[in-house]
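Exercise 7. Given the encoded structure of a 83-residue chain, write a plausible sequence.
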């Protein structure tokens, strides 16, 4: 996995990638999380995440592989399409 493959707006490296999303309010943040949850279920690949009011922090890693995999990159790209 090279750093060139990490989608724009995401940061990290061999272990995981992260990104923070900000919204106008809690309802928009929660709606975004709901849409991400549907993507994650469809991909059978789930994020580590945290929500504080209008902010959603997402961390993607593949626990079974012990680090970043193509599954994480693909989910990050799918999440980006929601914004």
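Solution.
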């Amino acid at each position: 996995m090279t750093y060139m493959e990490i989608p724009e707006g995401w940061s990290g490296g061999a272990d995981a990638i992260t990104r923070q999303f900000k919204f106008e309010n809690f309802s928009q943040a929660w709606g975004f999380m709901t849409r991400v949850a549907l993507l994650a279920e469809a991909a059978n690949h789930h994020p580590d995440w945290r929500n504080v009011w209008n902010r959603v922090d997402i961390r993607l890693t593949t626990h079974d592989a012990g680090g970043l995999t193509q599954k994480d990159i693909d989910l990050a790209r799918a999440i980006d399409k929601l914004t």
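Remark. The domain at 24-81 is CATH 3.30.1360.20 (Gyrase A; domain 2). Students should compare their own answers with the one above.
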